[in-house]
């Protein structure tokens, strides 16, 4: 047993210990109060006699309970559910031609980062797998101060003006009268709002696509969404869109799978990120920029300032200029992931804003929200939010001030402190706003250049593969089918018909409502009361681009099975040779395998080898894995063939279009499944390979299986999607 007895010198060097940022769980230390007083009994309250009442003077009890009573802070109003990790960013290409931001020019520099991924609508305890946009917020701790790129996993947004954000969020959050449904957009208020906000058409296509059901946070793209500015040392500016491209490709799960995961493991994404980093499989993204020279601002069919539009990669290619690597899990969820405070206004010299009205509104919102969430103006002093460079200014006091400022002066200009801290001019690295010329009337009106709501929604839909399109139809049918108010369903069908009539009628068929020919109240609701309606009629521009390959996830498949999770189903009598050979080959290719048996512990192989079985059918389900393998061994095969859990596991994997492999000897297990009727009758040694199902000897299985897992899913199998699972 470890010796936990505190040595008598324990307090000797601890004079500053309570001021340190990181405190290990105390081993070899005495329990103390927050004032440092040693506690001799932490199990019993102070009472008047053995059976008497508790005493008010019990300051030990009161301190402990009071702290506990105040342990919760308000969760984020949006993006409450999140997971985060530390990492580093390195630029590969010197970008000084475009920006003076040091971390984007110095190819030798490693910039520490903290990245928080999140869902938007659900509360802090909701499931990771809700159909939702994902936040992708990156804090770069640069040598010029913190830069926050507070983005999403989709490149556009629902609305064009920040003043609509509270309405959007009120509509998507659980309905206020009964607080139902949690973390879901499939309800009346959300679609009521959307049906009145045609500017959301493009984003609706993204959210109803599988992009809203990531397989892993490590397999998502990220986007800065807005157009930003780069400014170089000569003060020349250009426009820029930011991208994150995951090295593992962009992959999603099926909707039925997502719903099951929410029950089996609501922490699925959080666990996946944590385990990958813990195992040394560090997630990586390439950092990309789309650069548009200032003089090209108006050359597109859409407005660069409109956050419901993307710049197709065919028009402006994404230059991959750096790499983000996440390599360290947080030490404490609350202190880091929960207390991190992002802000679009945290920029460094070389990066500036544009007049995108959504971005402009965000510039106000983020500090404002931290004031309530983190309880005052000193949240920048919380360790996770501190820049790596020193902070000098005349700000003082406020709730929970950590900094102990010495001296008399906290104002500027001053002479008593010789003018310190000095203002830094541009040449000394001071931030100077880009001097954009503005000569305008004050108006409360949407720019007519923002009014083509449907062209890019069409572009997105047209760019999807057949299965991806089917998933959008399914998603819309699911969501609108949950809408109880019929006229909202109808308005939405009309809305969809503006994007694609085929899409609208497919959804209409599924939800039993006709697509209306027109609407009494027009879709467009952002027209000011006194405006000329002609100016604001939605115009569909026939863009030159019909499709954009970058918009389909199918085009991101990588030839790799790194970090994929593979289930190996086994029972006593398993052929250890076939199990271990396939397992070793998969692991050598970077996959992670779990042997899953009818019960936990070990399975005994046909040659009496004890093979660890860390998972059982009671504890896991096929939705938590990317693929399944069934090794040979007659007794094992006979047990699995008769085990409803094993068959359910396989049926579900089939339904979710995953790669399935079996040793020739285990053909009969697969034959006992629902999809077994598709397999040939005889137990031949020839490799059977169809729709991602591979049956054969060890060697053939291994090669075929690895190639099949790398393809991610066999969506064509969905033609036979009525599989019971
Ligand atoms: Fe946010 N958003 N947002 N947002 N957002 C917040 O800030 C807001 C928008 C995004 O992991 C809040 O600290 C407004 C777009 C992420 O901590 C709040 C508008 C994009 C995160 C806020 C938007 C985002 C937030 C809530 C409309 C993608 C999580 C808690 C103008 C580019 C950051 C907080 C984290 C969080 C306001 C729209 C991304 C209230 C007013 C567009 C990733 O300040």
General description of the model:
There is one protein chain. With 725 residues, the chain is of the alpha+beta class. It contains 17 helices and 19 strands. A hairpin with a 2-residue loop joins strand 3 (134-142) and strand 4. The longest helix has 17 residues, at 357-373. The model is unreliable at 1-17 and 721-725 (pLDDT under 50). Bound molecules: CIS-heme D hydroxychlorin gamma-spirolactone 17R, 18S (HDE). CIS-heme D hydroxychlorin gamma-spirolactone 17R, 18S is lined by residues 76-79, 82, 116, 118, 135, 137, 150-152, 157, 162, 165, 225, 340-342, 358, 361-362, 365-366, 369.
Give the arrangement of secondary structure elements.
Blueprint: H1 59-69, E1 82-91, E2 111-119, E3 134-142, E4 145-152, H2 165-172, H3 188-195, H4 201-207, E5 222-223, E6 228-231, E7 237-246, H5 255-264, H6 268-278, E8 284-293, E9 319-328, H7 333-338, E10 351-352, H8 357-373, H9 455-462, H10 466-481, H11 486-499, H12 501-511, E11 565-569, H13 576-588, E12 592-597, E13 601-604, E14 610-613, E15 615-616, E16 627-630, H14 634-641, H15 644-655, E17 659-663, H16 667-671, E18 688-690, E19 693-696, H17 698-710
Parallel strand pairs: 11-12, 11-16, 12-15, 16-17, 17-19
Antiparallel strand pairs: 1-2, 1-9, 2-3, 3-4, 5-7, 6-7, 6-10, 7-8, 8-9, 13-14, 18-19
Bound molecules: CIS-heme D hydroxychlorin gamma-spirolactone 17R, 18S.
């Amino acid at each position: 047993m470890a010796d936990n007895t505190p040595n008598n010198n324990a307090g000797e060097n601890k004079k500053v210990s309570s001021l340190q940022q990181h405190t290990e769980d105390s081993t070899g230390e005495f329990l103390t109060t927050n004032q440092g007083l040693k506690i001799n009994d932490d199990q019993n309250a102070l009472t008047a006699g053995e059976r008497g009442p508790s005493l008010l003077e019990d300051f030990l009890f009161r301190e402990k309970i009071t702290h506990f009573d105040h342990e919760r802070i308000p969760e984020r109003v949006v993006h409450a559910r999140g997971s985060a990790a530390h990492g580093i960013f390195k630029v590969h290409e010197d970008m000084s031609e475009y920006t003076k931001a040091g971390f984007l020019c110095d190819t030798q520099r490693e910039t520490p980062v903290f990245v928080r991924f999140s869902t938007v609508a659900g509360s802090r305890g909701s499931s990771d797998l809700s159909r939702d946009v994902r936040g992708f917020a990156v804090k770069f701790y640069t040598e010029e101060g913190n830069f926050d790129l507070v983005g999403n996993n989709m490149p556009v947004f629902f609305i064009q003006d920040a003043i609509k954000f509270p309405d959007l969020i009120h509509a998507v959050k659980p309905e206020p009268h009964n607080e139902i449904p949690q973390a879901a957009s499939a309800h009346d208020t959300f679609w009521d709002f959307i049906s009145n906000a045609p500017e959301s058409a493009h984003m609706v296509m993204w959210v109803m696509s599988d992009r809203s059901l990531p397989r892993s946070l490590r397999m998502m793209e990220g986007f800065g969404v807005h157009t930003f500015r780069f400014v170089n040392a000569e003060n020349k500016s250009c426009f820029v869109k930011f991208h994150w491209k995951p090295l593992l490709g962009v992959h999603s799960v099926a909707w039925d799978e997502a719903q099951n995961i929410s029950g089996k493991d609501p922490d699925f994404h959080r666990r996946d990120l944590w385990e990958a980093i813990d195992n040394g499989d560090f997630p990586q993204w390439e950092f990309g920029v789309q650069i548009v020279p200032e003089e090209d601002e108006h050359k597109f069919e859409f407005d660069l300032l409109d956050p419901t539009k993307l710049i197709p990669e065919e028009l402006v290619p994404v230059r991959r200029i750096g790499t983000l690597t996440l390599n360290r899990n947080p030490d404490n969820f609350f202190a880091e992931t929960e207390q991190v405070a992002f802000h679009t206004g945290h920029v460094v010299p070389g990066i500036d804003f544009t007049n995108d009205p959504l971005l402009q509104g965000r510039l106000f919102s983020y500090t404002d929200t931290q004031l309530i969430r983190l309880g005052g103006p000193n949240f920048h002093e919380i360790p996770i939010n501190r820049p790596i460079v020193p902070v000098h200014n005349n700000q003082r006091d406020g709730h929970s001030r950590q900094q102990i400022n010495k001296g008399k002066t906290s104002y500027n200009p001053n002479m008593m402190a010789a003018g310190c801290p000095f203002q830094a001019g541009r040449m000394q690295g001071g931030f100077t706003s880009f001097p954009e010329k503005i000569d305008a009337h004050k108006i409360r009106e949407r720019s007519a250049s923002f009014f083509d709501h449907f062209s890019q929604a069409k572009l997105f839909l047209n760019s999807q593969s057949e299965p991806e399109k089917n998933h959008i139809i399914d998603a819309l049918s699911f969501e609108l089918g949950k809408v109880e108010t019929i006229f909202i369903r109808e308005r939405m069908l009309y809305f969809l018909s503006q994007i694609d009539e085929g899409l609208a009628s497919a959804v209409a068929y599924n939800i039993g409502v006709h697509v209306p020919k027109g609407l009494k109240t027009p879709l467009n609701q952002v027209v000011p009361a006194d405006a000329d309606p002609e100016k604001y009629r939605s115009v569909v521009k026939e863009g030159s681009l019909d499709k954009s390959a970058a918009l389909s996830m199918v085009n991101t498949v990588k030839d790799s099975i790194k970090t994929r999770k593979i289930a190996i189903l086994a029972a006593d009598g398993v052929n250890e040779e076939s199990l271990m050979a396939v397992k070793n080959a998969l692991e050598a290719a970077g996959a992670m395998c779990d042997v899953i048996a009818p019960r936990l512990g070990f399975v005994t192989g046909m040659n009496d080898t004890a093979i660890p079985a860390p998972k059982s059918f009671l504890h896991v389900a096929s939705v938590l894995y990317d693929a399944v393998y069934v090794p040979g061994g007659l007794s094992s095969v006979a047990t699995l063939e008769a085990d409803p859990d094993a068959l359910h596991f396989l049926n579900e994997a089939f339904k979710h279009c995953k790669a399935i492999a079996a040793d020739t000897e285990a053909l009969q297990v697969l034959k006992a499944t629902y999809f077994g009727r598709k397999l040939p009758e005889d137990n031949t040694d020839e490799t059977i390979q169809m729709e991602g199902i591979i049956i054969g000897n060890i060697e053939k299985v291994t090669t075929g299986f690895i190639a099949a897992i790398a393809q991610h899913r066999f969506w064509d199998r969905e033609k036979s999607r009525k599989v019971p699972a």
